[in-house]
Backbone:
């Protein structure tokens, strides 16, 4: 994955959790996910990226971290059976992806609506042909990961409209 | 959801499964998913949509239907522990979304890479603020659903580039 995209995600996850969840995040060393050892999660918030870059961003959490993050974001206890729980985590993922993409200088990227998956120990797979990066995050809420897959569609198309894919 | 988007999805799922999985699909009456009764799935292939329309497409399957579809698509038995299993279902979802979007006349829409979720009885939630439509599908492979959430960003922007969201 193009290293120019990593720092915007690190900055975005720190800033979003700091401002919206009043929680400091320590981001560990990014690593490439081995497709034969897919990480499991209990809650995943998935955002699609398209335009000059195609890919996905996944906020991937164990249940306790997800409950802690959603509850602190909402200012009230949220359990997974509360519809606000998924909305809260989708909104956090949306803000991380939105802030990161605003710093992809020279690339026109748009983001999809978030999908939030809730289910004990599920796996979120991406195409094995595309390298997938994990940003391990530690915080008082618990550990979680931000996973990013991004492939440049048009590296030289600094002013190209993203519309040409229709 | 804008009804202009429903028929392209019905046509796309029938055509993709007919041509790529040599299976006839009967699509039942579309219905709006009640956010308080989220459907469960064992395998979900999620594609993000963005541009003039933002949203998501989810190919949502029970395990047996997913195994049957992936195996017939690949021409060999594929079980969920085989990395080709997720790739096959992601590719099917990608083709359904790609064919459908090519028929959104006047709208510039681009699609993300697929994410494939594998986990017994997980739930894929979308924002409750956006109506979500389910297309129930029956076939010799088993039953499954195509779920679609789409919100028009720029209804009058027939020639607008999808890039303007950066």
Residues:
């Amino acid at each position: 994955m193009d290293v120019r995209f990593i720092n915007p995600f690190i900055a975005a996850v720190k800033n979003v959790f700091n401002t919206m969840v009043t929680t400091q995040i320590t981001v560990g060393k990014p690593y490439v996910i081995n497709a034969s050892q897919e990480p499991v999660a209990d809650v995943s918030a998935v955002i699609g990226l398209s335009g000059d870059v195609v890919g996905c961003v996944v906020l991937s959490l164990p249940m306790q971290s997800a409950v802690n993050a959603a509850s602190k974001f909402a200012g009230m206890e949220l359990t997974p059976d509360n519809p606000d729980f998924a909305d809260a985590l989708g909104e956090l993922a949306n803000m991380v992806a939105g802030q990161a993409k605003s710093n992809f200088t020279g690339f026109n990227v748009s983001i999809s609506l978030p999908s939030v998956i809730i289910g004990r120990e599920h796996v979120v797979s991406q195409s094995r042909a595309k390298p997938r990066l994990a940003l391990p995050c530690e915080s008082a809420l618990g550990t979680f990961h931000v996973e990013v897959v991004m492939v440049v569609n048009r590296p030289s198309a600094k002013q190209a409209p993203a519309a040409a894919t229709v």
Observations:
- The two ends of chain A are 25 Å apart (CA to CA).
- Strands of chain A lie at 26-27, 31-32, 40-51, 53-61, 109-111, 115-125, 133-138, 144-152.
- Chain A has three helices and eight strands.
- The helical segments of chain A are 6-20, 63-74, 83-101.
